[in-house]
Amino acid sequence: MPLVSPPLDGPGADPNTGLAPLVLIADDDVDILNLVRVRLERSGFRVVATYSGDDALRLAGEHEIDVAVLDVMMPGLTGLEVAEALRRDQPALPIVLLTARTAEADLLAGLAAGATAYVTKPFSPQELEMRITELLGRV
Length: 139
Hints:
alpha/beta; Rossmann fold; six-stranded mixed β-sheet; 39% helix
């Protein structure tokens, strides 16, 4: 079941809407999903989160997301497949792949799928937040 945080205003809010950036998170690991969701919400982001690639693609169609954070290995659609679909629909959307796969071939496959950034597990939630902030131009 997708989780959606309430609208927030504050640092980094869009000057036209007054809303904080909306981050889509998709990861089938409940602990990682909740860790990232809570970290970003506490930092003033709005979040839509789910455990599957299929739901991630559906949520991206239902919400105007500002950035996507996708686990590579998920049930149904993989993060690579979701990234490819998002890239076709929203060419400028920042996409962060979050994965335990560290081989160069995996990195290249992620970039070929349309990823803007590639973060390997284990990861620092602070580093991930900083990467998202940079991608959104909130530095």
